[in-house]
């Protein structure tokens, strides 16, 4: 410490007397200004170190802890400052550094820190570990690969370089080569044994030879331990394979059944296993090791990996431990993610049927047929398309599934490894099957070859006549289970052709064409398509949003709010900077004394936040900048809710929020959610309908969403249309398909898929006329012009030729708000807008300026509508239907969609009765 202080003082300064028993980490320097930048250490009150409040802390760690369990927020600054304040002479019993890069040498500036127990977790593929006796003197612990275990390590690459001279000890490492890897267990002696499950050599026991052991110290169990182990993976042909490091604290062997995180416990300890690598964690560690479980029970480093075959059956079945640790809602959510997430799904090429790997389509066909194979797991199967028999390759039949599915290759004679000489549909049957056939009264003398159909009727090869029905005898129902042979539950299952037609049909059948109307809803970004889509669900859906959907929406809202918060935090930084600059300028201006020159570190503005909140803010901004928000949340939601609450209530953030109009990236709905930030961040938060409506980004991740509904019948209109309308509402189903512009593809090529839609609803935000976005080259583009461009390309698309179009001019409320402040002529397309302004103002509200009964906003609407109509006519020679809407208003959207309904009805009538029905045509305008 003395040396450190000496270094920090300017040359020539007298040495400081340091009481080694009780010196502060930082001292205030009062000397003359120094010519270099002094490293800044933000003081933190020990009592206010962020602790992790809501996750159960691992028991063993807590017991030994002297100063509690530290949760060091990720990102360089935070751990540094936290640890700095504790490492004077403290012994840190338990430290957690989360996120990659957090554990740089900077994290442990005071080399005298002793971490007797550390968990280094990372968002990358990097693991954890107990760092026993670690004295922080490691040079090899770099920020890119915590303890040298990096997801980046490739076959043949070693860790020696980064590890040499570390003089610390760790436990187990994984490299990316061992995604499915088990732990390596090692002791610092010449030979390290480990078991590695690799993709290529599942379950193979490989021996690892240690080499390049750093130095003798590494072998001394009492000293700092570091062992570098190279190993020869005998299962790999490529020779010396990846390196991994197997170390054990104090030379102990890691107990096989211990928790993989804290290394405590025995096989009797209750543990939860990772579905991908089978690493097992005790109840104290499981949440740390698995984080928010976005793909269910997987270590953080296994996220994205596929799960082990043996774990397939466990999917979606929560353990008692999980139920204890999480609320029931959270358990449900984790289980759902586990079952639904892409990485955990069975991949088609994991299934081989009749020696041919399945394609995606075949997989869908197999799984969605009326009688699919149960609990399908990766493996090799045989399938008899004619009879529907299904079994594991080399084994007797296991099930009778739907017949005639076009999946896999042709069945092989030896598919079930039978040796009876009797063939059914080209497969030599097994002995038990033969016995069964005999019981069924089937004549099997002379090793006949049979053709057996799905309904059990059979005939001998080469003969025309049906010889009988195998399943006819009641005794077979009893015998099936005895012989462990499947009996079709209902031989009159759908015939295969029906099945194929059902699953493969590309065009709706006749009936559906009669009764289904498809509406395609498109518009430029932010035009309001998803709002209108959600309103349609609220308006006409019997269950607008299921419980599952609401849960997903909850997560989206929680994630969004962190985004909004991030924008506020960034804004706060700007405003603080700006205020400080102003303050300094005015000080300089008002005083002439030299003592006021330069920056005043104690300057505080209303945007000042405490160092602890600042650390959180820095961390959040860093995460956002790295685009990793998804990986960190929603686990963080649980952990950081109290911090968010504190932050939100901080005067600085409130002051920033008051200037929200200056924050360009903050969407207008952000304020709605930020007002409720504290509630939203709670675990028990349930989104209201209003929240769902306002929430961004929930309609669909791939930009395509659809909802089916019937238009509810309105009360009679008195025109005698009631009965017809009522029939309509009963018979005709509508499907609203919302397509995000991002999903249109180059030159809107995906529109080809929508040839059978009946009406295109194009949405334009009226408020876009004075708004801009930056294109890829940083050029500002007017949003209305962009909408116009998109409109032109969609209208002109060959797939939508001759199709009816309804233009919804949305966000009328916003147009009303801004039209008097920002002229419509700001958009070059509207430069000839020349409204008639009446000077008889009914009140002081300018937006209510009216002429001939029309407000300025209404005139603007008509003007824009005509612009689009003319454009549409010039492109198609046809008439465009236009309506206005306020997407946030249910009735307004109802009116707009009913207008769409009218257009379709009119079109139906026109088709049915010819052009003579002009009188019922809806006007091309609706308001
Ligand atoms: N004031 C007002 N806001 C609206 C209206 N319609 C939509 N919004 C808001 O405008 C924003 C964008 O609307 P979305 O429905 O998400 O627009 P989108 O077409 O799905 O656009 P992207 O999500 O960007 O693709 C959301 O925050 C909506 O809440 C409206 O009529 N009035
Ligand atoms: Mg949207």
From TrEMBL:
Binding site for Mg(2+): 530, 701
Alphabetical keyword list: Calcium, GTP-binding, Magnesium, Metal-binding, Nucleotide-binding, Nucleus, Transducer, Zinc, Zinc-finger
Classification via Pfam families: G-alpha
GO terms under cellular component: cytoplasm; heterotrimeric G-protein complex; nucleus
GO biological process: adenylate cyclase-modulating G protein-coupled receptor signaling pathway
Gene Ontology molecular functions: G protein-coupled receptor binding; G-protein beta/gamma-subunit complex binding; GTP binding; GTPase activity; zinc ion binding
UniProt-listed SMART domains: G_alpha
CDD domains in the cross-refs: G-alpha
UniProt: GTP binding residues: 810-813
Subcellular location: Nucleus
Family membership: Belongs to the G-alpha family. XLG subfamily.
Name of this protein: Extra-large guanine nucleotide-binding protein 1-like
């Amino acid at each position: 410490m003395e040396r450190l202080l000496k270094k920090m003082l300017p040359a020539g300064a007298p040495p400081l007397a340091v009481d080694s028993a009780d010196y502060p980490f930082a001292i205030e320097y009062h000397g003359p200004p120094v010519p270099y930048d002094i490293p800044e250490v933000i003081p933190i009150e020990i009592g206010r170190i962020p602790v992790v409040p809501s996750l159960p802390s691992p028991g063993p760690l807590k017991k030994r802890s002297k100063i509690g369990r530290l949760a060091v927020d990720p990102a360089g600054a935070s751990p540094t400052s936290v640890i700095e304040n504790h490492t004077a002479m403290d012994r840190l019993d338990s430290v957690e550094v989360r996120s990659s890069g957090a554990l740089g040498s900077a994290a442990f500036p005071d080399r005298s820190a002793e971490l007797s127990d550390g968990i280094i977790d990372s968002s990358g593929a990097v693991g954890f570990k107990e760092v026993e006796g670690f004295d922080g003197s490691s040079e090899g612990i770099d920020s890119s690969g915590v303890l040298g275990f990096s997801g980046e390590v490739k076959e043949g690459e070693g860790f020696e370089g980064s590890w040499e001279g570390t003089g610390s000890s760790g436990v187990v490492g994984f490299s990316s080569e061992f995604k499915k890897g088990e732990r390596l267990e090692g002791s610092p002696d010449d030979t390290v044994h480990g078991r590695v499950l690799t993709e290529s050599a599942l379950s193979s026991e490989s021996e690892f030879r240690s080499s390049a052991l750093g130095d003798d110290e590494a072998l001394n169990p009492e000293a700092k331990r570091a062992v570098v182990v190279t190993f020869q993976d005998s299962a790999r042909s490529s020779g010396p394979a990846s390196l991994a490091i197997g170390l054990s604290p104090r030379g102990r062997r890691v107990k096989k059944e211990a928790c993989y995180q804290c290394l405590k416990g025995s096989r009797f300890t209750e543990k939860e296993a990772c579905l991908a690598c089978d690493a097992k964690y005790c109840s104290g560690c499981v949440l740390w090791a698995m984080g928010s479980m976005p793909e269910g029970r997987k270590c953080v480093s296994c996220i994205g990996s596929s799960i082990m075959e043996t774990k397939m059956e466990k999917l979606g079945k929560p353990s008692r431990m999980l139920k204890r640790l999480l609320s029931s809602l959270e358990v449900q959510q984790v289980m759902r993610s586990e079952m639904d997430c892409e990485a955990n799904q069975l991949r088609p090429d994991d299934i081989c049927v009749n020696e041919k790997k399945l394609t995606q389509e075949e997989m869908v066909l197999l799984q969605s047929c009326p009688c699919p194979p149960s609990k399908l797991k990766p493996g090799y199967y045989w399938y008899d398309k004619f009879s529907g028999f299904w079994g594991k390759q080399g084994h007797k039949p296991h099930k009778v599934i739907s017949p005639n599915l076009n999946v896999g290759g042709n069945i092989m004679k030896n598919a079930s490894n039978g040796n009876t000489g009797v063939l059914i549909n080209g497969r030599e049957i097994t002995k038990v099957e033969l016995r069964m056939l005999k019981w069924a009264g089937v004549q099997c003398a002379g090793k006949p070859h049979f053709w057996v159909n799905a309904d059990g009727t059979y005939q001998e090869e080469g003969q025309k006549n049906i010889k009988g029905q195998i399943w006819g005898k009641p005794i077979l129902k009893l015998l099936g289970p005895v012989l462990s042979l499947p009996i079709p539950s209902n031989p009159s299952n759908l015939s295969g052709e029906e099945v194929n037609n059902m699953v493969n049909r590309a065009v709706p059948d006749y009936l559906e064409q009669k009764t289904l109307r498809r509406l395609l809803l498109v518009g430029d970004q932010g035009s309001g398509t998803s709002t209108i889509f959600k309103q349609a669900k609220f308006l006409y859906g019997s269950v607008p949003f299921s419980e599952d959907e609401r849960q997903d929406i909850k997560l989206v809202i929680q994630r969004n709010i962190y985004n909004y918060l991030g924008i506020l935090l960034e804004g706060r930084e700007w405003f603080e900077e700006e205020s400080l600059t102003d303050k300094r300028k005015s000080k300089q201006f008002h005083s002439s004394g030299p003592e006021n020159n330069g920056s005043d570190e104690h300057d505080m503005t209303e945007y000042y936040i405490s160092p602890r909140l600042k650390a959180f803010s820095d961390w959040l901004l860093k995460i956002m900048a790295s685009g990793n928000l998804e990986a960190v949340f929603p686990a963080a939601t649980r952990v950081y809710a109290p911090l968010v609450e504190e932050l939100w209530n901080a005067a600085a953030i409130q002051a920033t929020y008051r200037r929200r109009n200056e924050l360009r990236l903050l969407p207008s709905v952000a304020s709605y959610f930020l007002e409720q930030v504290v509630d939203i961040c709670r675990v028990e938060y349930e989104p209201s309908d209003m929240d769902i409506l306002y929430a961004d980004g929930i309609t669909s991740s791939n930009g395509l969403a659809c909802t089916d509904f019937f238009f509810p019948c309105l009360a009679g209109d008195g025109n005698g249309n009631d009965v017809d309308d009522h029939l309509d509402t009963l018979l005709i189903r509508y499907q609203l398909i919302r397509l995000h512009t991002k999903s249109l593809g180059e030159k809107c090529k995906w529109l080809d898929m929508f040839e059978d839609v009946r009406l295109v609803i194009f949405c334009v935000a009226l408020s876009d006329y004075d708004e801009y976005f930056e294109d890829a080259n940083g050029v500002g583009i007017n949003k209305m012009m962009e909408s116009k461009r998109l409109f032109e390309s969609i209208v002109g698309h060959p797939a939508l030729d001759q199709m009816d179009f309804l233009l919804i001019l949305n966000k009328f409320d916003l147009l009303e708000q801004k039209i008097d402040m920002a002229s419509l002529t700001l958009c070059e397309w509207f430069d000839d807008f020349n409204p008639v302004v009446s000077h008889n103002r009914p009140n002081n509200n300018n937006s209510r300026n009216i002429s001939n009964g029309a407000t300025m906003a209404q005139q603007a609407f008509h003007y824009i509508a005509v612009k689009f109509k003319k454009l549409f006519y010039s492109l198609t020679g046809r008439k465009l239907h236009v309506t206005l809407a306020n997407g946030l208003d249910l009735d307004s959207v109802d009116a707009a969609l009913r207008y769409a309904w009218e257009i379709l009805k009119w079109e139906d009538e026109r088709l049915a009765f010819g052009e003579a029905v002009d009188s019922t045509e809806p006007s091309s305008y609706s308001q």
